[in-house]
């Protein structure tokens, strides 16, 4: 069976951690990301130096099809897909920016649906999809994250419905929803989260998470060790939502 896994947003902070973890387990991750992100991928890291990369813009169906065709040979199958490409822009009421609104839905929801639609026919029985959602979809305290949170909540529903459609082919679909993870914070992220210290205070564990802690959950759900788990959302949030 093929070991190839397409990881969208694979050049980002969490995406790179996922690719590293998949390589350790013998998967063959393909980091699919925007041109600029692929160009800055840390190839100085020996773990990632030989990894396949491909330029893909998940907002563009043609780009998704071209990228997938470039890395999956005719007759070849895929072992999995990780839908990790995502974008956060603040959206305080009274300040709603149409371009930001459109971009968040285009990348976080429509992008995931496009990539899944293109890749689904290539997935072998026993393969799996992991969608990267967010704590924000299950929580209301990140003021200004209403649109981002709505897109991330939608991922839980998208996961359940696609899991049902793909179950008959022996393919599982799950959603990993991270809490705040250590990564350079964009101005939008700092505004809605209140920064690392405030974010840490919401968690039972009183800290933010590390990218590799998300990668562990993703690798587990992709692997055969999770063979009876499908249609689930797993919060990797240090105990925020449960508290
Ligand atoms: N960092 C956090 O605290 C956190 C928390 C919860 C969920 N998440 C989610 O985890 C995922 C990864 O986040 P991250 O922190 O690594 O951020 P990141 O910005 O480092 O990574 C996101 C990646 O998505 C890519 N991307 C954006 N638009 C794209 C497009 N149109 N086509 C293809 N790729 C595109 C970016 O180039 C980038 O490499 C996102 O879905 C994010 O919403 C992050």
Helix content: 25-40%
Strand order of the largest sheet: 3-2-1-4-5-6-7
**Beta-strand share of residues:** 15-25%
Globally, the shape reads globular
**CATH-assigned homologous superfamily of one domain:** NAD(P)-binding Rossmann-like Domain
Which CATH first-tier class of one domain would you pick?
Answer: Alpha Beta
> What radius of gyration results from the CA coordinates?
17 Å
**Low confidence ranges:** none
Helical run tally = 8
In CATH, the topology of one domain is named Rossmann fold
Question: Can you name the CATH architecture of one domain?
Answer: 3-Layer(aba) Sandwich
Describe this structure in words.
The chain is of the alpha/beta class. It has a domain at 4-86 and 112-139 and 152-178 and 211-236: Rossmann fold (3-Layer(aba) Sandwich), CATH 3.40.50.720. Helices cover 40% and strands 17% of the residues. It contains eight helices and seven strands. The chain has helices at residues 13-24, 35-39, 61-71, 98-119, 146-167, 187-193, 196-201, 211-222, and strands at 4-8, 28-33, 52-55, 78-83, 123-132, 172-178, 233-236. A seven-stranded parallel sheet has the order 3-2-1-4-5-6-7, sandwiched between helices. Strand 5 (123-132), helix 5 and strand 6 form a beta-alpha-beta unit. Helix 1 crosses helix 8 and helix 4 runs parallel beside helix 5 (146-167). The longest helix has 22 residues, at 98-119. The chain is globular, with a radius of gyration of 17 Å. Residues 8-9, 11-15, 33-34, 37, 56-59, 84-88, 107, 111, 132, 134-135, 178, 180-181, 183 line the site of nicotinamide-adenine-dinucleotide.
């Amino acid at each position: 069976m093929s070991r190839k896994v397409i990881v969208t947003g694979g050049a980002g902070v969490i995406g790179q951690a996922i690719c590293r973890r998949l390589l350790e387990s013998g998967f063959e991750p393909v980091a699919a990301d925007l041109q600029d992100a692929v160009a800055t991928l840390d190839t100085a890291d020996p773990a990632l130096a030989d990894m396949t990369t491909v330029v893909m813009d998940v907002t563009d169906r043609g780009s998704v099809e071209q990228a997938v065709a470039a890395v999956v040979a005719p007759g070849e199958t895929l072992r999995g897909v990780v839908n990790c490409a995502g974008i956060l822009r603040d959206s305080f009421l009274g300040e709603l920016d149409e371009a930001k609104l459109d971009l968040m839905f285009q990348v976080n929801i429509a992008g995931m649906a496009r990539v899944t639609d293109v890749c689904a026919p290539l997935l072998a029985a026993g393969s799996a999809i992991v969608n990267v959602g967010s704590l924000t979809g299950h929580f209301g305290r990140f003021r200004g994250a209403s649109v981002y949170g709505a897109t991330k909540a939608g991922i839980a529903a998208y996961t359940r419905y696609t899991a049902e459609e793909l179950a008959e082919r022996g393919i599982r679909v799950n959603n990993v929803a991270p809490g705040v993870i250590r990564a350079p914070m964009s101005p939008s992220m700092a505004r809605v989260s209140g920064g690392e210290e405030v974010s840490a205070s919401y968690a039972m564990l009183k800290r933010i998470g590390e990218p590799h802690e998300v990668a562990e959950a993703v690798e587990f759900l992709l692997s055969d060790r999770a063979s009876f788990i499908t249609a689930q959302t797993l919060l990797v949030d240090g105990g925020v939502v449960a508290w």
